[in-house]
Amino acid sequence: MKYFEAKKARIEIIPMIDIMFFLLVFFIMVTLHMIPDAGITSRLPTSSTAQSMPKPQITLAVDKTGAIHVDGKVLAPQQLTALLKSKPNTDELQVTIAGEEDVSLQQLLSVMDACRVAGVTKIGLAARQGGGSGQ
Questions:
Q1: What is the three-class DSSP state of 15?
Q2: Phi and psi at residue 96, in whole multiples of 5°?
Q3: Considering the chain, what percentage of its residues have pLDDT values greater than 70?
Q4: Over the stretch 44-81, which tens digit does the pLDDT of each residue have?
Q5: DSSP character for 35?
Q6: Taking the domains of the chain in order of start, what are their residue ranges?
Q7: Residue 99 and residue 81: Cα distance in Å, rounded?
Q8: Strands 94-99 and 58-62
Q9: Which of 56, 76, 99, 106 could disulfide-link to 94, CB 3.0 to 4.6 Å?
């Protein structure tokens, strides 16, 4: 009489695998947000019309002496051009220049020229949202 035979219990592992993949993706996403962005601290100028931009692939910091900081290294404009040229798809590369309040316009333009010589066309200037005079 097969009707009264007890079925052997089975453990389904497919749902357990799904849960493990979900946990793996969750912990990877949490870990990515825990890694701090490296850089130097600077006093950005303020602008009343500052807008948020998409996250750049490269952030350049320019201090008041005109030194260019990239990933903890200080570069000259020629070295910056060589670094950017070594990147793939320079025409799609997004660069943000974060200059301190005391940086002269000439220093910012020399950094922008170094980026343009490398073929970068998407260049942004970092600013803090603030009450600029708007003039």
A1: helix
A2: -115, 130
A3: 77
A4: 666 666 667 666 678 888 888 888 888 888 888 888 88
A5: S
A6: 2-34, 46-129
A7: 18
A8: parallel
A9: 56
Query: What's the order of all strands across the beta sheet hosting 94-99?
Result: 73-75, 68-70, 58-62, 94-99, 122-125
Which amino acid would we find at residue 30?
A: V
Q: Are strands 58-62 and 68-70 parallel, antiparallel or unpaired?
A: antiparallel
From CA 15, how far away is CA 18, in angstroms rounded? 5
Q: Tell me what pLDDT residue 126 has.
A: 80
DSSP H helices, 11-133, are 14-34, 77-85, 105-117
DSSP lists the bridge partners of residue 68 as 62, 75
**Triad 65, 70, 75: Cα angle to 5°:** 55
Strands 94-99 and 73-75: unpaired
**Whole-model pTM?**
0.58
Say how many Å lie between the first and final Cα of the chain, rounded: 94
- According to CATH, the topology of domain 46-129 is Nucleotidyltransferase; domain 5 (3.30.420)
